[in-house]
Amino acid sequence: MPNPIFPSSRPDRIRHLLADLVGFDTISDRTNLPLIAHIESYLAFLGLKGERIVDETGEKAALWVTIGPEDRPGFVLSGHTDVVPVVGQDWSHDPFKLIERDGKLFGRGTTDMKGFVAVCLAMVPEMLEAKLTMPIHLAISYDEEIGCVGVRPMLREVAKKKIRPLGAFIGEPTQMQVIIGHKGKHGVRATFHGLARHSSIAPEGVNAIEYAAELIVEIRRRAEKLAATRSSDSLYDVPHSTLLTSIVHGGAALNIVPDTCTVDFECRGIGITESREVTDAIVAWARAELEPAMKARNPACGIDFEEILDYPALDTAADAAIVTLAKSLAGRNDHAKVAFGTEASLFTSIADIPSVVIGPGAIAQAHTPDEFVEMAELEKCAGFVEKLIAHCAKTAA
């Protein structure tokens, strides 16, 4: 149960809430329910009740909270609660305890992206005091780090509502720059099933690793072709779609023909559905070129493919109303696109909510040991939310 007595100053409220959030170990393979319960208790003290959307395991939940009138369209502030692992990283302190030094707040998730969530929660009292004529929704999700998993059930519920939000601000770390686009991603795992034999009679076996190697070479060939086809979209630092093999496992011993090998590969595509189109084409090639050769040697051999990650690209028009509003609230005129993925594209594709990415902190700090966010960045974000509150408190037309 959180202490309902919070500091009166905005910066101290943000620090207090961020310390609470960082204190929950919400690495993606663990439950986030204690953190969600903590937020719910804080909101209950303020007279608010959110809508929990629990996953099928009962161990994870998203939270949808509406401040203001529910019968009018408003805006969404969205953040995820999960963080990446700390194992193998050289932290100088407990990663789940907030430490402040020289204007920087250290701890796992401070930048990605509990800092943004803390700011939004810290601003709820001001939202309540403002007598909003348009609602502000908080969308708090889980398992973003493993493929934007937890936001999907929540967005499917939002899509059923009679009133659709006008737009969403996804608070990933952009140093409060307005991001209008990011690449999509499709990840695939290929499992090659060969035939094991003693290596002294290798020709009688079917070498799963060797067939997997042919797939890897083909992936590399197609990656080079994508790199040669550069997009005219100069807003991306890597102005073309990318494709690579990332994980390979296979073999048991030097003297055994390997009967299994798994290959994980991904495409990050600029086009809305390009990443899936690229990987689908690779699967079709392997089905036509590699699998028949394997089965010709032994009918039980072959390849299984499974999707391991999928989200579309984001491509919000530069002149869209949500972009214009984001620039006004942020007090800047520029916009950009990024290579990393976010939940923003799912707000658009699942719930038809125009979205941009904008949040405190630098992506260079995300996932690193001694991750930190500058207090100045959190205060800038609070200023953004303050302007959003003022915008939503205007008399409705």
UniProtKB/TrEMBL annotation:
CDD domains: M20_ArgE
GO molecular function, a single term: metal ion binding
InterPro entries attached to this UniProt entry: AcOrn-deacetyl, ArgE/DapE_CS, Bact_exopeptidase_dim_dom, Peptidase_M20, Peptidase_M20_dimer, Peptidase_M20A
Xref: Gene3D superfamilies: 3.30.70.360, Zn peptidases
UniProt key word Repeat: no
Localization terms from the record: Cytoplasm
GO BP term (any one): L-arginine biosynthetic process
Ranges of residues in domain Peptidase M20 dimerisation: 180-292
Pfam families, sorted: M20_dimer, Peptidase_M20
One GO cellular component term: cytoplasm
Domain of life of the source: Bacteria
Keywords: Amino-acid biosynthesis, Arginine biosynthesis, Cobalt, Cytoplasm, Hydrolase, Metal-binding, Zinc
Cofactor: Zn(2+)
Primary localization: cytoplasm
Family stated for the protein in its record: Belongs to the peptidase M20A family. ArgE subfamily.
NCBIfam families linked to this entry: AcOrn-deacetyl (TIGR01892), PRK07522.1 (NF005710)
UniProt protein name: Acetylornithine deacetylase
